[in-house]
Hints:
CATH topology of the largest domain: FAD/NAD(P)-binding domain
Bound molecules: flavin-adenine dinucleotide
Radius of gyration: 21 Å
Strand content: 15-25%
Largest sheet: 8 strands, mixed
Structural class: alpha/beta
Number of helices: 10
Number of strands: 18
Order of helices and strands: EHEEHHEHEHEEHEEEEEHEEEHEEEHH
Amino acid sequence: MKRLFEAAAYEPQPGNYWATTRPATDWPPLAGPVQTDVAIIGGGFTGLNAALSLAQNGVLAHVFEADRPGFGASGRNGGFCCLGGSKLTDSVLARRHGRADADLWSQAESAAIDHVARLLQTHEIDADTHSDGEICLAHTARAARRMAGQPGFLTLKELQARGLDGPWHGGLHTPKGFALNPQKYHDGLAKAAQSAGATLHARSPVTALRPTAKGWQLDTPHGIVTAARVILATNGYSSDDLPDWLRARTMPVQSSVIVTRPITPNEQQAAGYTATQMAYDSRTLLHYFRLMPNGRFLFGMRGGLRATPGEQATISRKIRQDFHAMFPAWRDVDITHEWSGLVCLLSGLVPFVGAVPDHPGLFAAMGYHGNGVAMGSYSGHLIANRLLKREPGTPAPNFLSQPPRRFPLGMRRRLLLAPAYWMAERLDM
Length: 429
Ligand SMILES: Cc1cc2nc3c(=O)[nH]c(=O)nc-3n(C[C@H](O)[C@H](O)[C@H](O)COP(=O)(O)OP(=O)(O)OC[C@H]3O[C@@H](n4cnc5c(N)ncnc54)[C@H](O)[C@@H]3O)c2cc1C
């Protein structure tokens, strides 16, 4: 495979807290040839949602996951099931794609959260949900001034009264979304897809993808797959040559997370931070955090530009430094877990959910810009609907089906990130 980061970025993360919260699950690797209607490459939220929706509609669907179930970002994220998926503001979306599409995007963001909530309820998935929407915390007085006057604005005093004290200047509450345990959601989703009739294979990397007279052939180490149609659901773990069309069209970016030991009620009181509310700050390179109902604190931010030991150590220091700067009362609280994973940016800064041009029968859903718990799930469902030729009241702007352009610099395109981060850090001051 032709992937952008050093090998460490594609290895399991022993420090992943979620893996300790439930018994490990597995799916059998593919052993022998198989023929299917739809082969789905990648077993994260996108791939599993596509498989579930297809299987529920009587379509034979097989998922091929390179590693263990939940190996990718879907098993590593912060569990914020929230609005998002694009890096463009509403006004820029409207300017680029028209007001109607910008409005459809807002509806899709909201529908994506409702979609996950419905899945949890329908399939009785206990994913340790909590939080009434999320709060954006103003890291400067200027950011607070921009929020003031909007519905949901809270002064620092009001935040303190809600158990959200800290070095902020105010905040904006969005009463939509909730937090979840991503691996419990992933496990439940996998079970639901299997019960509906989908077949899931782990440890089955697709190493080659070729068009045939009747569709597609996929090679895996222990079996060849023939499929009428294929969905690429590989997101930040995509390979630049699977297929060649993908070359330089994705920008994988690392995100890092730490989790503390349970913080006692007294320690929470001492920090003035007692609310189990999903929160993030108003920086461009934002920090996202939440106190979980079991008292552990999860804190995430951007990861390293490279997956080398030196860069990992730098990020490890930086994430602690930022956590302690925001929560000095917890400076001595043990950090018990630490890991990172890859999210996926696309050049248009909106997801791609559609047909791959000039590749009949090949589809892709990817590029959620670090917000794919809800949007990745929804996009998997959307791409299944596209294959099923169904339009069952799922809002989707037209721009989602526009194929992403290539980034410049080919395999060296990560070089674009350093100046972008440098600039964002300056703007965040
Ligand atoms: C640290 C971190 C924190 C995050 N926090 C949040 C958050 O709080 N809220 C939020 O909304 N989003 C968050 N995200 C983003 C979110 O997790 C992702 O957008 C989402 O999980 C993407 O799902 P996916 O199924 O498209 O991709 P993934 O879950 O990454 O799955 C892709 C899968 O494809 C497999 N694959 C790749 N190539 C092949 C191949 N050739 N053959 C077979 N399989 C292959 C990979 O092994 C991988 O498992 C976070 C991400 C990270 C890394």
